[in-house]
Amino acid sequence: xxxxxxxxxxxxxxxxxxxxxxxxxxxxxxxxxxxxxxxxxxxxxxxxxxxxxxxxxxxxxxxxxxxxxxxxxxxxxxxxxxxxxxxxxxxxxxxxxxxxxxxxxxxxxxxxxxxxxxxxxxxxxxxxxxxxxxxxxxxxxxxxxxxxxxxxxxxxxxxxxxxxxxxxxxxxxxxxxxxxxxxxxxxxxxxxxxxxxxxxxxxxxxxxxxxxxxxxxxxxxxxxxxxxxxxxxxxxxxxxxxxxxxxxxxxxxxxxxxxxxxxxxxxxxxxxxxxxxxxxxxxxxxxxxxxxxxxxxxxxxxxxxxxxxxxxxxxxxxxxxxxxxxxxxxx
Length: 331
Fold this sequence. Notes:
- By secondary structure, this protein is α/β, with parallel strands linked by helices.
- About 35% of the residues lie in helices and about 25% in strands.
- It has a nine-stranded mixed beta sheet. The protein has a six-stranded parallel beta sheet with strand order 3-2-1-4-5-6, with helices on both faces.
- Strand 5, helix 5 (about 105-115) and strand 6 (about 120-125) form a beta-alpha-beta unit.
């Protein structure tokens, strides 16, 4: 399948797709799009593409010229809606980095338009493919803790907090970062959120100009259980992804700490204790790409899809709404 990448960013997330694009059999990079000439030229040299395979912006003519089958959109989320709609209307499938879009309404339109046009939309929630996450999901599905009653997910960042330079957004933690834990709450347990009460703020050492970088959210799930998320910008020891998890059911407690899984305080996975979970974004994005290619080719049970991810995105926007209104929000 022939890929076009939008947002090649030589020093940003754009580069994390290169492993998959270069190594996965049956995938060929045929086009690159980026408004930054330096980024575009660097990526063109990496892939060895001619100048006519590069463009500053997307267009139907460009997609037809390079005969693309799908796009990978690794631009900031405020551009995802426009890029996805244009590509799907040109007959292409779409992989978009998380979060899917900058509003629930535009994300929902992306999902509806994919269905209307018969296109496939994938949202790259690559943390689903981390080995500790896959193992924890498997254990929960096997019923090792019984019926889930309580979930806690903690994600720790440095005191600076999550910041993307030169790009202001009011809730960088909830929308760009916590979307991973929100997505995993659903995916690992099979439960869906019904409501949320949340608060977002800044520690005294954080600059408000970059948005709120600390948050706590309490979800009520559809089985009556509760899921607590804590995202902190702090000097306290901890991990960001996949984070520290506690999942308690009527038969026991599973913990995920630095990539190690414990049952009732006893480590049960992996065979040898590890010091931390490895966050290899290029390798994880390669797994996203493999799953997407299979989905595009006809697999009806993808790990990632826009329709499913919309539910995770609603959790993030529900938290922002709750924090700003100071009240519980129905999801």
